[in-house]
Amino acid sequence: MWRGFLSPRRVLDLVEHGPDDSAFAASLRGGPAHRGWTVQTHLIASVVDGINNTTWAIAQTNSQRRLRPPRPLQRPAARQHRPRTTIASLRRLAAPELPPGG
């Protein structure tokens, strides 16, 4: 077990520059269900939904009967209340501004 020391500034740098699918980033987005859902993953899901909707629209136009529209890919639900702690607020705590003349 590592028993070294990390300064608050180093911890903030590690958190701020961590990967998009890290546990910290997932907790900011809404919880563990968001783990693995990066911006790219959301964009790919949107592209797949668009392709499915276009395919359905073409099939519906050429069909004599009513077709069921496709269901969108399931995504993790966003939390209603976002946490108020931000990287900027943590950075202010780690390096408070000195008073004038101090």
**DSSP summary, beta strand count:** 0
Q: Which residue ranges are poorly predicted, with pLDDT under 50 across at least 5 consecutive positions?
A: none
Number of helices: 4
The helix/strand order is HHHH
Separation of the first and last Cα atoms: 40 Å
Layout of SSEs?
Layout: H1 8-16, H2 23-29, H3 39-61, H4 87-94
Helix pairs in contact: 1-4
A few lines on this structure:
The protein is 46% helix and 0% strand. It is mainly α. It has a domain at 37-64.
Could you explain the architecture of this structure?
- It is a single chain.
- With 102 residues, the chain is mostly helical.
- It has a domain at 37-64.
- It contains 4 helices and no strands.
- Helix 1 packs antiparallel against helix 4.
- The radius of gyration is 22 Å and the shape is elongated.
- The model has no long low-confidence stretch (mean pLDDT 82).
